[in-house]
């Protein structure tokens, strides 16, 4: 068994360095750190491409994201793995390891060329999803709970258990701005798609809007006071997202509710599902872990207010689809296990949910039916590659 693990480390755990275009700064030497998954087993005689990765049933899917073309889904899991799936077939195309802790969050760059992951191992990492090369890693002092790209892909934001949110330059790998104002873990972050601001959600039951453009320009900036603090939740703010044009914000909390806010003034615009009688019969029955805002239509002039929809994912085992401005519940998807993550595809035709039951499920927003179930209990990795060679 010792020999097998040693072989696996040498074959699966070494990642080459691949720099972002126009970036001449060399990645950290830590990029070559080796990692191996404890559940990888030998099957028959050891041979390249003959390995089966078995995930313990209790190791759930913590993070999900569609690529911008809608052809692939990326998942991050509690067993430290990242898997790229073919949406049409439901088959795993590549599974790879580098993180040494649970993968909490995953996001594609706007052009789809890179993915960003945040982990309990105190790191956020930028990957090439096709070669599995590690391009950049950003090291914090505590677990990284949430990550987000800027619209240009030039910057990322991370939220950590150290109560700070940090902005990093993806070209140099350097920290460029620190947001210091929460009194609890920063569990959710998002960058405004129109630029200029970022929003953070925290264990301290607040969300905060920050004006980050000047801070970024200083390159070693530090903000101790947000533009606006959003008060109203009575539980940890676990999830947050801007609307596609940055006008509104949705927050999801452990108080079982999701709220819509004005992104400029910070005014609360309502609680999803709350009736005029003050009751919320459609609300989740457990804490909300993830939120997502549906992308805009290809032709903006065709947009109607009722087309603006949001999704919330909860520990009650469901995903709920809502009209964003009326707060009307449109449908409840029953996943099964606690739902940790949710994302829309770029066309707003499907959503994917990731659960503690070890699966990710792709749902049609037309029929509300499951299109594919991505099962993490038996994944065949791509052919292992030698150090310095891309995975194929």
Structure commentary:
Strands 11-12-13-14-18 form a 5-stranded mixed beta sheet. It has a 4-stranded antiparallel beta sheet with strand order 3-4-5-6, with no helix packed on it. It has a 4-stranded antiparallel beta sheet with strand order 7-8-9-10, with no helix packed on it. The protein has one domain (59-375): YVTN repeat-like/Quinoprotein amine dehydrogenase (Methylamine Dehydrogenase, Chain H), CATH 2.130.10. The protein has 2 helices and 31 strands. Helix content is 4%, strand content 42%. The relative contact order is 0.13. It has 392 residues and is mainly β. The model is unreliable at 1-57 and 380-392 (pLDDT under 50).
In brief, what are we looking at here?
This protein is mainly beta. It has helices spanning 2-12, 213-218, and strands at residues 40-41, 52-53, 61-66, 72-77, 81-86, 92-97, 103-108, 115-119, 123-127, 134-139, 144-149, 155-160, 164-169, 175-180, 186-191, 197-202, 207-211, 221-223, 228-230, 237-242, 248-253, 258-262, 268-271, 288-293, 309-314, 318-323, 329-334, 339-344, 350-355, 359-364, 370-375. It contains two helices and 31 strands.
List the helices and strands and how they pair.
Layout: H1 2-12, E1 40-41, E2 52-53, E3 61-66, E4 72-77, E5 81-86, E6 92-97, E7 103-108, E8 115-119, E9 123-127, E10 134-139, E11 144-149, E12 155-160, E13 164-169, E14 175-180, E15 186-191, E16 197-202, E17 207-211, H2 213-218, E18 221-223, E19 228-230, E20 237-242, E21 248-253, E22 258-262, E23 268-271, E24 288-293, E25 309-314, E26 318-323, E27 329-334, E28 339-344, E29 350-355, E30 359-364, E31 370-375
């Amino acid at each position: 068994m010792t020999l097998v693990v040693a072989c696996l480390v040498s074959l699966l755990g070494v990642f080459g360095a691949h720099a972002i275009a126009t970036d001449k700064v060399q990645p950290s030497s830590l990029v070559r750190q080796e990692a191996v998954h404890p559940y990888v087993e030998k099957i028959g005689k050891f041979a390249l491409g003959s390995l089966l990765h078995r995930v313990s049933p209790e190791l759930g899917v913590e993070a999900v994201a569609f690529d911008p073309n809608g052809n692939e889904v990326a998942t991050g899991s509690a067993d430290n793995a990242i898997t790229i799936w073919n949406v049409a077939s439901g088959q795993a195309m590549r599974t790879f390891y580098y993180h040494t802790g649970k993968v909490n969050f995953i996001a594609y760059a706007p052009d789809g060329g890179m993915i960003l992951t945040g982990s309990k191992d105190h790191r956020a990492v930028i990957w090439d999803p096709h070669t599995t090369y590690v391009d950049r890693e950003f090291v914090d002092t505590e677990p990284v709970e949430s990550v987000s790209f800027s619209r240009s892909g030039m910057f990322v934001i991370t939220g950590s258990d150290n109560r700070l949110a940090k902005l990093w330059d993806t070209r140099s790998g350097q920290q460029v701005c620190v947001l210091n104002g929460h009194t609890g873990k920063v569990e959710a972050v998002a960058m405004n798609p129109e630029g200029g601001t970022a929003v953070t959600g925290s264990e301290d039951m607040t969300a905060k809007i920050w004006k980050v453009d000047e801070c970024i320009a200083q390159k070693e900036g530090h903000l101790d006071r947000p533009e606006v603090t959003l008060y109203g939740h009575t539980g940890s703010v676990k999830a947050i997202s801007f609307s596609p044009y940055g006008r509104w914000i949705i927050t999801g909390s452990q108080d079982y509710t999701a709220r819509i806010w004005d992104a400029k003034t910070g005014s609360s615009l309502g609680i999803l599902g709350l009736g005029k009688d003050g009751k919320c019969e459609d609300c989740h029955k457990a804490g909300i872990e993830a939120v997502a805002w549906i992308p805009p239509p290809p032709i903006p002039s065709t947009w109607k207010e009722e087309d603006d929809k949001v999704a919330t994912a909860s520990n009650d085992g469901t995903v709920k689809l809502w009209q964003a401005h009326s707060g009307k519940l449109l449908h409840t998807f029953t996943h099964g296990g606690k739902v940790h993550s949710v994302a829309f595809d770029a066309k707003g035709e499907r959503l994917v949910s990731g659960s503690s039951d070890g699966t990710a499920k792709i749902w049609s927003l037309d029929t509300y039916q499951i299109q594919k179930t991505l099962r993490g209990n038996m994944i065949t990795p791509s052919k292992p590659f030698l150090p310095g060679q891309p995975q194929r």
